[in-house]
Amino acid sequence: MLLSDGASLIVDKVSHLHEISCDHLRKFDPLVLVVGAVGGTLVYLHVSKVYSRSEVPLHKRLGSFAFTQARKLAFVQRKIAEKLEPAKDDILRSIHKDDSDRVFITDIPTVGKSPAEVQQLATKYDAYGHFEVGQGKVSGTVYTDRGEEHLEMLAKIYHDFAYSNPLHPDVFPGVRKMEAEVIRMVLNLYHAPRGASGSMTTGGTESIIMACFAYRKMGTSRGIDSPVILCATTAHAAFDKAAHLCGMRIRHVPVDEKNRVDLKAMERMISKDVCMLVGSAPNFPSGTVDPIKEISKLGLKYKVPVHVDACLGGFLIPFLEEAGYGIDLFDFRLSGVTSISCDTHKYGCTPKGSSIIMYRSQELHHFQFFSVPEWCGGIYATPTITGSRAGANAAVAWATLLYLGKEEYVRRCREIVKSTRAIVAGVEKIPGMKLLGSPDVSVVAFTSTEFNIYAVGDILHKKGYNLNTLQNPDAIHVCLTYNHASESAVRSFLADLLEASTAVSHMSDRGNGSATAALYGMAAQIPDKSLVDEMAFAYLDACYAEPPSRLER
After folding, report:
1. Where is the signal peptide (predicted)?
2. Most buried residue, 330, 364, 385, 407, by CB count within 10 Å?
3. From CA 179, how far away is CA 159, in angstroms rounded?
4. Per-residue pLDDT reduced to its tens digit, 290-304
5. Which positions ≥6 away from 548 have C-beta within 8 Å?
6. How far apart are CA 343 and CA 313, in angstroms?
7. Residue 172 and residue 64: Cα distance in Å, rounded?
8. Which of 134, 154, 150 is nearest to 142 (CA)?
9. How far is residue 289's CA from residue 526's CA, in Å, rounded to a whole number?
């Protein structure tokens, strides 16, 4: 009886409101009501489209918009220029500081130079570099010791395949086979099932872009209008680039105290628009491996493809177990893992310009392919972004994998991880210093709550080190390579790190006045990141610019 009375009361209320609304609307011309309804709907749809175009929180977008509008004011532009121009000049000078003669070739010579003259000039340019790579002074960058025998073999291979192009497999059948064999060797390294497939790319960024491109096409075929990449805040910036280039959205998941993706947060953030889940093995900032097994389970549960980014550690993690170090499953043995990116040109020790993107099946791989069947120049189809590809890159990658062999990769893995653990133990003993994340493979990231870590990095730079600067939070890291795999390299690094941190801890400002601290401090405070973009672009411009005259001030 009570339910019946309640229902009657609700019906009466709704009827009453309907009558009031009708009486009010009768005062308006029907055409006005129709136009208002259609117009309001269009405005709503436009606002919704603009809002959903980005995963950036609304308050940040509004702040950025306000700052951008303020930048258009003349006096604001003058103030910004006063600060930026000297900084741009400093960047230009910093880039060209090693150019000792400041002679810049701008025109093709009328008469060609002899091979000896060209080689002499190349040797001069090569001598510009002053970092002691072989002594473990450089983070990442060069992952092998550049042994003479290896280099001599590569020179011969490059000589034979310098002008080959896998785009023309009929003309260059040998390099086609080399590329296919490299892909198959890496697929088998990752326990790929029968029917798995992959492509060779120019590097990790292209491999990641290809995976995102494939999943965008796959998502679109499933009816997803605005596909979303779901990855940790620690995932490589190449995923942001892929989202931008492929017209996708990217949703960043927070990480836990060990810098691993927060699985509960990831599951909460899965929506019908998510076309791929991403796990890093390991991530770039702190070298931490995400819980790939659990991410794989999420992928199976929600029927979302899972991509494993193993670009950095791709030729370490498959050998960890044989090297005597444990690691949870991360590859195609997990049924939810549908693709993996792996750089051969890092710990695979191949020359720069090769990476592998792998898929569980040819069906998935086909989403990456591009074809124009009706082009007047003939049927055009390519597996990756590029059309023509450097066959020499495939040839030297193939040669390197065959030359080193599994036993050598296992040995190098063992030595690199051993040195990594030694540096971890040393960092933990330095007063005021603490590790960032979990150094699971070959990267050691560290920070401090007692002094500015960037100032420590600046001192180490003056000592001849080239390390990586991190932000959010402030930190620096060293990515160990085979060049760090010695007791002397580890001992020297820890001694220099202790000396630098001690010096900064005794500074009156605790290092807050260092150049790098000032730069990143300013960047963190600017709501409109286009200013930071402008400085980054100034750096890129400087890389292509003519060297400034010594007399210019």
Report:
1. none
2. 330
3. 17
4. 999 999 999 999 999
5. 89, 92, 93, 96, 102
6. 8
7. 52
8. 134
9. 31
